[in-house]
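Q: Okay, next protein. This is C2 domain-containing protein from Phlebiopsis gigantea. I've checked the sequence twice, so it should be correct. Can you predict the 3D structure?
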Amino acid sequence: MSRELGTLVIVVLKARNLPDKHSFYKQDVYAQVALQGITKKTPVEAKGGQHPVWDEELRVPIYEGKGKDGMIMKVSCWSKEPRSEDLVGEGELDITETLQTGEFDDWVPLGVNGVMRGDLYLEMTFYAAGPPPALSRRPSKMNPSDRLSRPASVTPSTSSQG
C-alpha cells in the first residue's frame, strides 16, 4: 500500500460565466473534484445559475507512487436536473506545484469539447503527513469584498436577435 504524503484541503469557492440552458429559471449547480481515484462533490446550490457560490471545503488524502496521472486533478461543474445531471464544464489541474509550495488560489478554466464553459475558483492548501496539525483555513488571497460576491446583474439588451 502507498504511503500517505498528506492531506490536500480544497475550498471550492465559486464559479463564473457558466452557460445556463434555462430561460425562465436559474440552474441548480454543484462542483466535483476527482483526484487519485477519490471523487468529492459540493452540495447543490439551488438557483446558482451562471455564478454559483459554494465556499465548500473538501479534503483529499494524497498518496505517493501514483505517478504523473496521480497528480492531475479533474474538476467539473454539473447542472442538477429533475431526472438527470448535465455536464456544464470540466477542466484539469496539475497539483505537483501545489504539493511543493503548499498552496494554490486561482481560477481553473472549464470547457467541453474545446469550447470554454466558464471558470471554477479553487483555494487549496497541502498539509504534509506528520503529527496532525490544527487544520484551519488560511486567509484567502482573493479580495475579501470579491470573495463570496456574484457579478453585478447584467441587464438584457433591448436589441432583437434573429
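A: Here is a summary of the prediction. Helices lie at 96-101, 144-147. The longest helix spans residues 96-101.
Q: Noted. On to the next one.
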